[in-house]
Structures are given as C-alpha cells and as structure tokens.
Amino acid sequence: MAKITIKDVAREAGVSISTVSNALNDVDVLSPETKAHILKVAQRLNYVPNLNGKLLKSGTTKMLGFFTTSVSGPYFYKLVESMSRQCDRLGYGLNVFVTKDKQVIMSNILGRRVDGVIIYEELGIDEQDIIAMKKDKIKAVFLDRVLEDEGMGSIIFDSYESGYEATKYLISLGHKRIAYISGVDTMFDSVQRKEGYLAALREYQLPVEEDFILQGYFEEDSTYNAVKSYLRLHPARVPDAFLAGNDISAMGCIQALKSYGYEVPQDVSVMGFDDIDIAPYYSPPLTTVRNQIARQGMLAIDHLVRMIQDKEQGSAQKLQGELVVRGSSHVKLERKDRK
C-alpha cells in the first residue's frame, strides 16, 4: 500500500494542501470545525507527517540525542528513564545512539539529526571533535567531563569527593588495608573515584599498595573473578575493606569473598557507589554512596533544552553524593585470614 501523503488528506477532506498544513501545525487561522474535520480525516487515513519536510522548513526536529557505548546496568536504566520522562514533559523525543564508531557519532551530531546532544564517556570525543561541534553551534551536555562554554555544559557527579569521603568512612571504622575495585580507566567517574580514594589514603598516611587496586570494569562477573584471583594469590594479605567502583562491582566482590569463606562485614567490609534499587535488599544490605542518577538525567535535559531555546549558556554542575550506611560495613574486628 502506498504511503498516505498530505495531498491524499487534502483531497479526502476537500480542502487545499496549505489548509491541511495549517491544521496539522496548529496554525491559528482555521475555524475549529475545519481543523477538527481535517485532523479526523488524517487520523482515519493513518497519515504520518514527513519529519524531514518539517525539519527543512523549521530547522528543528524536536528530538534530542543521547550518545553512549552502552545502556546496560541499573545506572543507565535509571538515567535513560529519567531523561525520557523529562523530554516528554518538555515536548521533545529522545533518540538513544549506542555505538563505539566515532564516525557514526559525529555524522549524527554534525548532520543535525537531532536538535541537541547528551554525551557519555568512552565515545572517544576529543578536543578536535568539540571544536567542530562548537563551530557548527551544536548544543551539548556532557556527563563525562567538566565543560563550560556558550553552547556546551556538563552535569556530573562529584566523584572525587565521593571517593574521598567513602574511603574516609572506611578508615573511621578502623580499616587500614583498603582495596579499590576500579571501573574502566578511561571513564571520568572511575578515574575520579580512584583519585579520591588515593587522596584519603595519603592524608591518613596509609600505604598505597598496587596489589590493592583491582580491575572490575563496573561489572559483577569481572569483579567476582578479579577478587577471587586476588584471594587465591594473596591468602595472607586480604584487605580489611573493599571500596568498589559501583554497586554491581560491590556485589561481585561480596560473592567472591563468600566463596572463600569470608563473612561480610564481620571479616571484610564492602562498599559501593550509586545506591541502585537492589542495594537495600542485597545480602547483606549494601553500604554505598547514593548518586543522584535520576536528577542527573533530568537536569541534563533541562539544561540542553534551555540552551537550544537560547535561554541560558552552558554551565558545569556537580551533584554531591550521599553516604548510605547499611549492613555490608562494620567496625574492624580481629580476623584470621584463610590459608
């Protein structure tokens, strides 16, 4: 069946093409009866307006783009859900682009497929790409770096401070051998949390041991394997506590410790980041840093739309984390390490 066009709607409704266009675009020149008649005909015919045609005329798509290399895991689920809801409230749609191909990313950004973009780390967007975006007056909000420019801003977590405060909390429990489970070394939040962890150790004159920094890639399975490997190789040097780069990693760490007969938190404290939905119900309930994920998504959309509408310039905003103490952390007790 041939696609229904605006000409078909005009012929069926007995009016001109321009009259149909006015009705569909809510131009206030028609009587309510005429407008209602045309919209009813369009609906009956299942007419879908040509977005490309509207774009050529208006220069806008009423669509925003979120560019990322992954949408797996609780963080992205909550982030995308929050952004989608806020787009809906503001009259925009949200396109989610999941790709590691920078050429595809830049083609979509510079090709004006969307009115503005939200960008997450690991995409390889470098300084030259940002210069090209500025030259084309692309409005953008970054979730992976601090950027403040006329048409570009950022909404990020204060991950350095959170990493620092989380480590200080574990030190306050009497833990002196604190391991860190890193995420992805190229990602902003992972790097910042690790830097905060190291800063707290230095401040309290605790040793920074290379072996105590494990790679978990923000994944439960990878963390589980990394912690098990460490316990197998260093049975006499088990940390007092593990600070994991996110809650999923903390859960993988707990499972690895349990598999070697360690009890959490009686033998080893474990702490994560994000406060995902399952954290209070895990066994044991997870001590963590609550990040304002939904708020990050909402603010990113708000800021982007206001830049698109020329109502504000780009700015950088840091969201503070909140320490949430639950059952996976405990004051240090004497412990016999497994041989």
General description of the model:
This protein has helices at 6-13, 17-24, 32-44, 51-58, 74-90, 102-110, 127-135, 159-172, 188-203, 220-233, 247-259, 293-308; strands spanning 63-68, 93-98, 116-119, 140-142, 152-157, 178-182, 213-215, 241-244, 269-274, 287-290, 316-319, 322-324. It is α/β, with parallel strands linked by helices and 339 residues long. The protein has a six-stranded parallel sheet with strand order 2-1-3-4-5-11, covered by helices on one side. The protein has a six-stranded mixed sheet with strand order 7-6-8-9-10-12, sandwiched between helices. The radius of gyration is 26 Å and the shape is elongated.
Q: Which band does the percent of strand residues land in?
A: 15-25%
Biggest sheet strand line-up: 2-1-3-4-5-11
| Category from helices, strands and their pairing | alpha/beta
Would you identify the regions where 5 or more consecutive residues have pLDDT less than 50?
Answer: none
- Could you give the distance between the termini? 74 Å
